[in-house]
Amino acid sequence: MERVRHVGIVAVSAEGAALCYRTLCIEGASLLGPHDHPQITMHTYSLAEYMRHVDANRWHEAGRLLLASANILVRAGAELLICPDNTLHQALDLVRGESPTRWLHIAEEVGAVAATRRFQRLGILGTRYLMEGPVYAEKLAARDIAHEIPGAADRERINAIIFDELVYGRFEESSRGYLRGVIETLGTRGCDAVILGCTELPLLVAEAESPLPAIDSTRTLARAALREATRNLSARRGV
To answer: What residues make up the domain containing 86?
Structure first.
């Protein structure tokens, strides 16, 4: 009998990983039945360990931490890996080929959703490293989707909101209003949607509250993991 695949979460920041985990558990029931979801194992090194490498532009070393987590999870039985942290996908891109099992890539999944919804120009919101880095630029370009990022001052403010508030579970109304203003500005620059590209951002600005259509990267990744974990079951059921 076909079975649901075991999902491994390579966590980096607590709030984003928790949202991803909760989404897998809660939305798993819609596919598998009441209270059911795939087996899930999570491992994380501290965010401080990752940030020492990120701040020093040592992306390969950050990738080694991701692989170390991956190996721990595979030994625990994980058959499919996800990382609910957009920024660290810059490191994942460098080491993905060395993985002991398959990874789903958050930017690839977001790009697939954007293409399905026929968005043409996306605003990217996230850490400064993500907004200024290659992760989304490359994946969106592969689908002929243009992108914009906020101006320099806005990038610094958003970065501070993420690292000084969101990763600690603080969700300030002033920051929510500020993010909504940034999204409105991206709309004036031709964006028809935005990517909530820090995994904590959906906790601050929900898709329904965004001035532009928004893609919640955290829940998008979790839903992709559910899709892949249950793919064989869906095929047997004719879905």
So the answer is: 7-105+220-237
Look up tokens 């919101």; give the residue. 125
Q: What is the CATH number of the domain that holds 187?
A: 3.40.50.1860
On average, the pLDDT of the chain sits at: 95
Residue partners of 12: CB distance under 8 A and separation at least 6: 44, 47, 50, 83, 84, 85, 87, 88
- Asked if 81 contacts 10 with a C-beta cutoff of 8 angstroms, the reply is yes
- pTM exceeding 0.85: yes
Other CB atoms within 10 Å distance of the CB of residue 61: 16
* pLDDT tens digits, 142-198: 999 999 999 999 999 999 999 999 999 999 999 999 999 999 999 999 999 999 999
The alpha carbon of residue 173 and the mean position of all alpha carbons in its chain are separated, in whole angstroms, by: 23
| pLDDT of the residue at 37 | 95
Q: Which one-letter amino acid corresponds to residue 236?
A: R
pLDDT in tens, 11-47: 999 999 999 999 999 999 988 999 999 999 999 999 9
> What tokens does 58 get?
């040592």
- The candidate with the shortest Cα–Cα distance to 134, out of 98, 87, 99, is 87
Same domain, yes or no, for 44 and 142?
Answer: no
Count the domains in the chain. 2
Q: Residue 161: helix, strand or coil by DSSP? A: helix
Does residue 24 sit within a domain? yes
